[in-house]
Amino acid sequence: MRTARLTSIAGACALALATASSALASDQTTTFQKVFPEASALCVAAGSGAALPARVTATAAGVVAACTTLQNSFNQQLSTLTAAQTAMRQTLSTQQAAMVAACPVPVTDAAACHAARETRTKTDRAAILTFKAAIATFRAAIVSDRATFWTAVAGTSSGIDTGTHPARPRPGDHPRPGEHRK
Known about the structure:
By secondary structure, the protein is mainly α. It has one domain (about 40-165). The chain has helices at about 1-25, 30-35, 35-50, 60-100, 110-155. Helix 3 (about 35-50) packs across helix 4. It is rod-shaped, with a radius of gyration of 23 Å. The model is unreliable at about 10-25 (pLDDT under 50).
């Protein structure tokens, strides 16, 4: 009875994860325009030959070059983040399937079922931590790229482009080095 309940809870969690992931992918797709709204507008203006704002100290060609660098870096970082997300999802799915296979209803081998659950827990935790590290790297790259772009275009790293993504990492999101959470 307990195993059947745990298996159905695990199945419901997997279904919820798949549904939430597909909703996230369709509604909150990270784009260059969302992450760099002011920079993308400036890139369009420089590319079309329109007059550049007074705060821009670079020439139109310099702005286009900075835009190309920013776009290429963003595409590379987004590709890396997407690959990390795909790897995490694959790991979670594989471990779920292995646990379900090792824990049939009724349970025939309790030790194998317990071992599969332990392996799943440890592997899933490692995959999630790896993905969180990829998110932190992505966010740091965005901040760095934004500063580099505005330094090249306006001569100051502060710029005016705050963007809507990515949100600043919260201090509690990641454990400190040597700190382990349970």
